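#struct-pred
JK: can someone run the complex with zinc ion? inputs below
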Amino acid sequence: MTHHLAPKISLVVFIDALGWEVLKGRHFMETQLPFRRKLRSVFGFSSACIPSILTGLMPREHRHWSFFYYSPKTSPFKPLRLLGRLPRALVDRGRVRNLISKLIKRLYRYTGYFQLYNIPFKYVDKFDYCEKKDLFVPGGMNRGQNIFDYLERAGVPYHVSDWRVSEQTNLDALKADLTQGKITFALLYMASMDALLHEVGKGSPQVDQKLAWYETQLEEVLRVAGEHYAQVRLFVCSDHGMATIHTHFDLMSKIEGLGLEFGRDYTATYDSTMGRFWFHNPVARERIVALLEQVPQGRILRQPELERLGCDFECDQFGELIFLVNAGVLIVPSHMGLKPITGMHGYHPDDADSDASLLCNVEPPNDPQAITDVFQLMRAESGA
Ligand SMILES: [Zn+2]
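RT: done, C-alpha cells with the ligand placed:
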C-alpha cells in the first residue's frame, strides 16, 4: 500500500477557560506540548474574549463585549415586555427562559449564541444584544474581520468546529476531515471546561478528570493527523482562567436602596462581575457614583483605565459607568445567573486567575503574549 502524506497540518485547539492558574500544579500534556506560555486575557466575558481571539482586535474595535447594552430605540425585545406582567414564578423558571430564548433566536433568525439569562422582562425592551451573528463564519463580527474572512479570501482548505454540538461530535468531525488529508488548518472548539470550572472550581478533582479526557482525545487527534500528514503542529489555547468565588455581593439591592427609579433616573444591568450604568439625570449619576465609591467589594473603572483595557466604547455603548468587583466576588443576584456557583471569570485582566494559556508542540510564531496574538498565530500557521 502506498501512503502519500500531505506535508503539514496546523491544529488550533481552543479549550474555554483553560487558565494558566488552572493548569498550575497539573501536568496536562507536558511531554506532548512542551512550549508553554501564559497569555494575558481581555477584560470581559467569553463574549468579548472569543471575538478578540478570532480578530486580534480589542473590544472597542470589534464591538463585542457583554451581551446586553442600553438601546431602547433599537431594542428588538419590545414584544417580551408583556411577559413582565406574568407572575415571575412562572416566566422566570430556567427552563421557561431557555425556551423563550430559543424561540427568539429562531424568530429573529439570530445565528449567534443567544440567551436571555435573567434579564427582567419588564426592562428587556430597553436593551439590545451584541451577538446576533455566528462568530465562527466569515462576516461574523460586528466590526472588523475574523480569521474566517482571511481563510476564505486566501482559499485555505480549513476545518472549524460547530459550537452548537458536543465536544465528542466536534472531535469526530475533525478526525474525519483529517483522514481526508485535504485541510491544512483546523480550529477545534471545546466549550465544556468552562461550565465545569464554574460549577466545581479550579481545585476540584473533576477538573483533573476532564483534563485527562482532553489528553486522551488530543493524543488520538495527533495519532490520526500523524497518519495523514508529515508534520503536525498543535496549539492548545484558551480565552481566560477561572477565579474561585469567596464572597457574594448584592449590588442590586444597594442601588435600589437609593430610591431612584429604574428606567426613569437610570438604567443598569448586572453581570456576574460588573454593574453597568446609564444615567438619565445628573442626580442619579451623583448618587450612584457616591455609593459605588464607598463599596469595598469593587471599584469604578475610569476612562484612562478603560482605554488601556481596550474597552472604551464609542458613545459608551456598554455603559456610561462600569463598576467591576474584585476577583472572587460574585454579584448575586445578577441579570446573568441565579444558581450558586464555585468559579467565575470576567475580572480584571491583571488578576492572575484571568490569565489564559498557550501550549504547543513547536515554538509558536510571533512571540504571542496575549489572547489577541492567537489571531496572528492562526494567520501565520494557515498562511491566510
Ligand atoms: Zn464562563
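RT: quick notes.
The first strand starts at residue 6 and ends at 15.
Residues 91 and 97 are 7 Å apart (CA to CA).
JK: thanks, will look after standup
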